[in-house]
């Protein structure tokens, strides 16, 4: 059917019907034949269910960098499953086996962190780029894959910390941080400082706090964002301190231990960031009760 023909030329009706049997295009209201000898652009085969159609179709899934062969391998019948597996193992050289293992690790960690598919695709592409520059040889695949996943999360603005990456990785935090710095230098990647605002919704959700506290915490951080970036505060500690300050302003209580556990930091760090935010915040609704509670914050959370 010609996509340009949407209305009948005779009566102006939009009830256009395609007749594949007679290869015609006609109007359902007045019966005028609009086009004849229409070319059928569909397949030459017929199918009667979804399973039969999937077997006869000649196109496969789109190309994906998450698979070592980009998903462009030739499918074989199901009866040759064992021979297909053996042929795949024998045909792969050492570099392909390494790539397949690395992409599997990236997919495993991304699944554990509930990361979207496009982020996994970007991380796999980043690994291929590093392998093409010979940055993989002589280094641990697990720590490089973990560092690349963290870099991609930073690029996409997804709030994931190195500690969370290390929790699902098989490598310690120290080695992942070292690989992260190495990749930034070799691949010349420039990342903007992590925004504490990205962590506030997730922390509030895990703590079961209201939307009022979330919005107020975002406002507190946004009003002093330049100072936070200049001092180099950790985004998780800053987000936790803003949530704690917002909870006091809203009259809701949040346990310091729970806040530190969710943020993955220490109560001392949260207390220091809280003191700075409380002094510099432009909000004038901070009560004297909240300031008195601030003095005993560390004692209550340690």
Report on the structure:
This protein is mainly alpha-helical. The protein has three domains: 1-57, N-terminal domain of TfIIb (Single Sheet), CATH 2.20.25; 94-186, Orthogonal Bundle (Cyclin A, domain 1), CATH 1.10.472; 196-301, Cyclin A, domain 1 (Orthogonal Bundle), CATH 1.10.472. The protein contains 15 helices and three strands. Strands 1-2-3 form a three-stranded antiparallel sheet, with no helix packed on it. Helix 3 packs across helix 5, helix 11 packs antiparallel against helix 12 and helix 11 crosses helix 13. The model is unreliable at 284-302 (pLDDT under 50).
Terminal residue distance: 72 Å
Q: SSE order in H/E notation?
A: EEEHHHHHHHHHHHHHHH
Question: What can be said about the biggest beta sheet?
Answer: 3 strands, antiparallel
Kindly report the name of the CATH homologous superfamily of the largest domain.
Cyclin-like
Name of the CATH class of the largest domain = Mainly Alpha
Main sheet: strand order: 1-2-3
Brief account:
The protein has about 300 residues and is mainly alpha-helical.
